[in-house]
User: Fold this.
Amino acid sequence: MTQTASTSQAIALLRVTSGALLLTHGLIKLLVFTPAGTAGFFESIGFPGILAYPVMAGEIGLGLALILGFMTRWAALAALPIMIGAIVPHAGNGFTFSNPGGGWEYPVFWTIVLAAQAIIGDGAYAIGNPFKSKV
Assistant:
């Protein structure tokens, strides 16, 4: 299978967009809702409050990794549990995200996008995996 330059750039666009969204969600939790507020929200929807901290760190760190193209496949795979967890509180709210409480459409779509990113890899302009053998 061959990739054209435009295919590689499209993969990079998907990677950077997904990373920017993850980063934004993590920073909103950290800076707007605050860690304590986010932990309280997690508890209000039935998750342990302590789970808010690795989720925030994951969204920020994995978002940056995707933006930079650093170990893209692993970063996308590592973000999947966060996205699958985001489906849970929306599952009973119907399909569309515009429903009260937000439906499951958006987190399911984003989960699929991250799974696709894990399959297709870095794309253009990526740092890649500095730990991978060059031989």
Residues 72 and 122 are 5 Å apart (CA to CA).
